[in-house]
Design brief:
Length: about 150
């Protein structure tokens, strides 16, 4: 199952491939079903910002492959959202440094695993050839022809 999400004007539009959306009768939740009709996940349609409910109007379209969620009103000053502290520039830099380190490690591990999975057989054959050459008597390896000028 694949999906894409985009913001169109003030509506969040989610499109599925290989699955469908099903909206509950009360429109307070929706489910995602696979191509066999089995429910993969059920989620509420309500959105909360700092414990303040933001009403959302859901709409399922295109034979259930598109779900649109549109907020029905903007938040008012009747329910102000509390100001939350944000990280300092030093904390942001430290977080970026940590992410860069973890990304580098993940890339290296992924590269090694990819090399083993994809190139493993060829690497194994090349390694075996190297070991055979290192253990061969002088003049008996496949490389002996090149040293003799042939």
């Amino acid at each position: 199952m694949r999906y894409s999400v985009e913001l169109v004007d003030k509506t969040v539009v989610t499109t599925l491939q290989g699955g469908t959306f099903r909206l509950a009768q009360d429109e307070k939740s929706y489910s995602v079903t696979d191509s066999h009709g089995a429910t993969v996940v059920s989620l509420p349609t309500d959105v909360r910002v700092d414990d303040v409910a933001v009403p959302v109007k859901p709409a399922v379209k295109n034979d259930g492959t598109v779900l649109e969620l549109t907020p029905q009103k903007t938040m008012t000053t009747d329910h102000p959202v509390a100001v939350q502290p944000i990280a300092s520039p030093l904390e942001n830099q430290r977080a970026m440094n940590d992410f860069s380190t973890q990304f580098g490690i993940a890339t290296a591990v992924g590269g090694i695993l990819g090399t083993i999975a994809v190139s493993g057989p060829a690497l194994g054959i090349a390694g075996l050839d190297l070991i055979n050459t290192l253990q061969a008597a002088p003049g008996t390896s496949k490389w002996a022809k090149d040293t003799a000028g042939n």
